[in-house]
């Protein structure tokens, strides 16, 4: 049998350990917990973008069948962790997270204004349609371009000198004007919404008035536990958050949103367990979105293709009550060797709900602009876009002046170009057609910073020789349990089928939420050290039984047994070791975190995407016909699930490039695309076969498993690669996403 | 969703009587549109008359017509031999519509009666003349990227929404009759007179009288089985409503076009038949130049709003592309 260790990862991948329960419907998602006495809450949301509630007419709703309670700001029991509302009421100042049913003010369209609790969801929905609200309307500002003059340095940044969102300059800020070849352009990304298959949902259960259990869709049970404990002034251990299965999440579950608090309030007020499921249209105003962002990029290079100056300015939208900051311009400081770089980041507060992180937050937005601009400058130079990037390859981090912990982007470029057959690309646009369609090639680079947070894991060997590994991490889709099982199996030399990985429960050992591509680097490391520790304890026990296994010898674990050496054929099973020592189980719990290496190396994941599009010359329809994506994320833990994650990122990037667009009618300050007929995401027919390649070399400086994050770089850059391919096919440079037929006609 | 009463008639006569007895009732077949409308509060019938058990599924050939029962499923019609052999344009259009799952539920009669997909119509918080007559048209002066560019020449439109069906665009290009049962027996309407243009009563999509039930459509045999194309331009490859759709059918012989049909979807309150173009094509040899000329001819009468001006070029281009494919020239 081959070794299953992280340094031999090309071995037969594990299939998803929870695949069977997911496809057979046995997995329980948040809305599916059948708690006795469960009742249903439905939110009524505002239809104006700014103003205040004058009055409710609840007569019809109150008398509708099945209604148990109607909760509004007028009768909601105070949330103990919130200050008492001011009298007379005052609008929340900037910097305050939205508080549901707290004051009469309307901060955005789609804001919850009332909540029906009824015995069935259908009856709650019907009663919700009978609630009449009268508003004192005030003029709202939702139009980005019309308000761009109000964009400013975020308050958070003004207060913090060391904020990474501060204006940045290295070299000469005026260098661009002197460059031989220059381009300058503005790029716009419209609002894009989180719409995972499973809408957000929660079942909230109070026990004895001071103990709360929530079955909730989120991306971090520990942070949800902390936020709910704080809001309801409970000891942390009195709150349990249970979220073992998540039907897709891409950043929408990082925060505890108003609907979650509302469900907990409702359960408290009616003294019954309450279920609240967001309707698809409510997802547009309840769980954040990728913010509307306008960027200006000025690029200058010498005639030889050497970059001389980059100026990257970005303005993102946020709400009036809260700032949401993104890394929009920050990747530009790092990705290419360029002596003169200036970045500026501003926020524009509007009468909208607060945006949030969405896969590759900031970087996906920024890299669309930068990688489009790089393509524009390459064309101005009449240089191959890949050659142009290689010419400006950063051998060390130009921002922090540190060596990379590891960087194999050059190998990514080479591998991707070879697999894609990039050499067939024509420099001149509209040069290739096939079956009456214009064909174009485009590429883009990708990077994402390395995030590793302190994480704990516990590994327990049972009397039957099976192992349970636990950590309060999450699986929002990538297959966390599968990857962790693989790590544990590798360390312990065990069949993966005898290992069970538990996640998604706040009672498990501390782990960060699943975001920022940090799970494998953080939790994977914790699982690795916990299993190493368990192995150490096991070998010590074995050593007491037999000289061959004593410390300092060549003892190894394999097939659930301890052997004296690799060649040894006479093993001692784990179960027998426990039995000999009269142990029911053997436990090891460890914490893993970063050390001094963070100050010695600059750590990033890198990648690149190659895209072929076909564009109909008469109708302007763009179809992506081929994608090769290549990543350097250190060691790959489990190829099969990694590949799925890369494919998912590319699909998201194609949606971003060609379809996704939440359009608002600014007369109403209300979205007009608030369902799947209006908000387009790719369907199967839009997605070609996607080829995924990894360099798969461990980064020995980042953590004990040599593995970096993959989730974000899978999408970062894809939209730029598509837009560049569209230019190559048509000669049309589309700088405002999405690239729909109307823009190419 | 408002609570409703559910009735299940066994015969067409019984269904029509039920409808007459319950003025607020709606027929339900596949429900692929009606359920959405009920969930969003756009339609709130007090009674649903479930017609799924009526014997209206048959697809047959009688004399010179293909008769398709109103309850035949879109997916069954699209692959029925009679349809693929005698009315391939119709099959093409059906397969361009919705998704496989929806076509498995949606019926021919329901397809005729689906409401517009204008987003203002679907949001009860916004003014809409079609949903709430007299409240105003939000699309005019709003986000009208998907809206109409052709209107009734004699009247200012009170609604600029477009008809959403693909199937109906093909039926408009062909010679189709709609068979209707009502309290006073059966009647037949030519397909071109079935849907309404936007008038001062935009809440009405068709000339069906209250309580009437579509029982079948009949499509005349034709000589378009060789040269036809349904081209649907959309924001993604599948499961999106048409930005513009073109049903093109040609009868060709000896290098000349003897008969032509062109109908458009996504451009008007009902599928739009291009009579002038058809006349201009007749007797001519097919060429890109000819198609470009005739396509641009009638675009002069198009009127666009802030977001849908692209449709004028796109419609002409799509027509050229569809006619080229139908004629078999590259």
TrEMBL record, chain A:
Record-linked Gene3D superfamilies: Aldehyde oxidase/xanthine dehydrogenase, a/b hammerhead, Aldehyde oxidase/xanthine dehydrogenase, molybdopterin binding domain
Database matches in SMART domains: Ald_Xan_dh_C
Pfam families documented for this protein: Ald_Xan_dh_C, MoCoBD_1, MoCoBD_2
Coiled coil ranges: none
Domain annotation Aldehyde oxidase/xanthine dehydrogenase a/b hammerhead: ranges: 24-139
Superkingdom of this protein's organism: Bacteria
InterPro entries, alphabetized: Ald_Oxase/Xan_DH_a/b, Ald_Oxase/Xan_DH_a/b_sf, Ald_Oxase/xanthine_DH-like, AldOxase/xan_DH_MoCoBD1, AldOxase/xan_DH_MoCoBD2, AldOxase/xan_DH_Mopterin-bd_sf
Protein name: Acylaldehyde oxidase
Lineage: Bacteria, Pseudomonadati, Bacteroidota, Cytophagia, Cytophagales
UniProtKB/TrEMBL annotation, chain B:
Record bears the keyword Plastid: no
InterPro entries named in the record: CO_DH_flav_C, CO_DH_flav_C_dom_sf, Diverse_Substr_Oxidored, FAD-bd_PCMH, FAD-bd_PCMH-like_sf, FAD-bd_PCMH_sub1, FAD-bd_PCMH_sub2, Mopterin_DH_FAD-bd
Matching PROSITE patterns: FAD_PCMH (PS51387)
The FAD-binding PCMH-type domain, residue ranges: 1-224
Pfam families reported for this sequence: CO_deh_flav_C, FAD_binding_5
Gene3D superfamilies to which the protein is assigned, alphabetical: 3.30.465.10, CO dehydrogenase flavoprotein, C-terminal domain (3.30.390.50), Uridine Diphospho-n-acetylenolpyruvylglucosamine Reductase, domain 2 (3.30.43.10)
SMART domains to which the protein is assigned, alphabetical: CO_deh_flav_C
Keywords attached to this entry: FAD, Flavoprotein
PANTHER family from the UniProt entry: OXIDOREDUCTASE, XANTHINE DEHYDROGENASE SUBUNIT C-RELATED
Identification of the protein by name: Oxidoreductase
Protein species of origin: Dyadobacter beijingensis
